[in-house]
UniProtKB/TrEMBL annotation:
Transmembrane segments: none annotated. PROSITE patterns: FMN_HYDROXY_ACID_DH_2 (PS51349). Residues 1-360 form the FMN hydroxy acid dehydrogenase domain. InterPro entries: Aldolase_TIM (IPR013785), Alpha-hydoxy_acid_DH_FMN (IPR012133), FMN-dep_DH (IPR000262), FMN_HAD (IPR037396). Its cofactor is FMN. The keyword Oxidoreductase applies. This is FMN hydroxy acid dehydrogenase domain-containing protein. Belongs to the FMN-dependent alpha-hydroxy acid dehydrogenase family. Keywords: Oxidoreductase. It comes from Brassica cretica.
């Protein structure tokens, strides 16, 4: 079957993957309301296309933290990618580099920062959790920096992991033949290693619930890498992030999978955060992106780019590196088409005037299109 859009990869992945693995990737927290709204909210934004514009050439290239990338579409951190495909994060790294964009590697990856770096050149960020043992955090950050990673995406919405009922029903555990490679060789102190999934259990149990704003300064003191805060949803926190020296914000609700259900879909939270930072640092969107039209809408609301998570996992499961390459290319092609039909030849021409939302005019749009 010829794949014609990114969403079709999920159907293939569901057929190929064990139920336990698919549910881990696909499910959300509790009622999964936010999971559904991350997608549905995009349908409540309509276009205001401009006509008679020269769109014979479309330029989607951009800069992120000073790095030139081919498009404002980047790969979000997603854990345990070898459950999706034997090549795991290595395939994703090769595909992302070939596309000329940024990959973010999860702390809980099944390939290490060094293994990912060994795939060749590429601009890569490292997603970081802060653990109770700060020596572990120090070692993780140092390894990422030494492996040539260019930024840290600090997850800030996880004082505790949310309740994914599918994982509870499935009694999810990392398959015995896999491990969390970024923790191998680290000094983890005295821990119980008697069960096969001890590393995964360690990572889940050691997230520091006392993490606070002062720890941003501590993290800045142990690494020279720029720090983006991943998990900001409000103007109040966005302003504090700027005050504490964050160099970027990723508007994210953790893919609606691990955290608080009934938070706003990220596309609805985006503009509030953008307005709060007043252009002082870039703001990115993570969550619900499946179409080039979604990306255009995020850019029109002020995002500097988007990160895609589940599309990466599902395309990887469907066809390995080739699947991730095609997924990224399809999103790029759809973005270029949306720009052309909206009268924009470059990203800087995309503006708030190109869209209309139901939070602008509550009675203008139906709940779903």
């Amino acid at each position: 079957m010829e794949i014609t859009n990114v969403m079709e990869y999920e159907k293939i992945a569901k057929e190929k993957l064990p139920k336990l693995v698919y549910d881990y990737y696909a499910s959300g927290a509790e009622d999964q309301w936010t999971l559904q709204e991350n997608r549905n909210a995009f349908s409540r934004i309509l276009f205001r296309p401009r006509i008679l514009k020269d769109v014979s050439e479309i330029d989607v290239s951009t800069r992120v933290l000073g790095f030139n990338i081919s498009m404002p579409i980047m790969v979000a951190p997603t854990a345990m990618q070898k459950m999706a495909h034997p090549d795991g994060e290595l395939a994703t790294a090769r595909a992302t580099s070939a596309a000329g964009t940024i990959m973010t590697l999860s702390t809980c990856a099944t390939c290490s920062v060094d293994e990912v770096a060994s795939t060749g050149p590429g601009i890569r960020f490292f997603q970081l959790y802060v653990y109770k043992d700060r020596n572990v955090v120090r070692q993780l950050a140092k390894r990422a920096e030494e492996a040539g990673f260019k930024a840290i995406a600090l997850t800030v919405d996880t004082p505790r992991f949310g309740r994914r009922e599918a994982d509870i029903k499935n009694r999810f555990a990392l398959p015995r033949d896999l491990t969390l490679k970024n923790f191998e060789g680290l000094d983890l102190g005295e821990i119980d290693k008697t069960n096969d999934s001890w590393l995964a259990s360690y990572a889940a149990s050691q997230v520091d619930q006392s993490l606070s704003w002062k720890d941003i300064k501590w993290l800045q003191s142990i690494t020279s890498l720029p720090i983006l805060l991943k998990g900001v949803l409000t103007a109040e926190d966005a302003r504090i992030a700027v005050e504490y020296g964050a160099e970027g914000i990723i508007v994210s609700n953790h893919g609606a999978r691990s955290q608080l259900d009934y938070v706003p879909p990220t596309i609805m939270a985006l503009e509030e955060v953008v307005k709060a930072v007043q252009g002082r640092i870039p703001v990115f969107l993570d969550g619900g992106v499946r179409r080039g039209t979604d990306i255009f809408k995020a850019l029109a609301l002020g995002a500097s780019g988007v990160f895609v998570g589940r599309p990466t996992l599902f395309s990887l499961a469907a066809d390995g590196e080739a699947g991730v390459r095609k997924m990224l290319q399809m999103l790029r092609d759809e973005l270029e088409l949306t720009m052309a039909l909206s009268g924009c030849s470059s990203l800087r021409e995309i503006s708030r005037n190109h869209i209309k939302t139901d939070w602008d005019f509550p009675h203008y749009l139906p709940a779903k299109l």
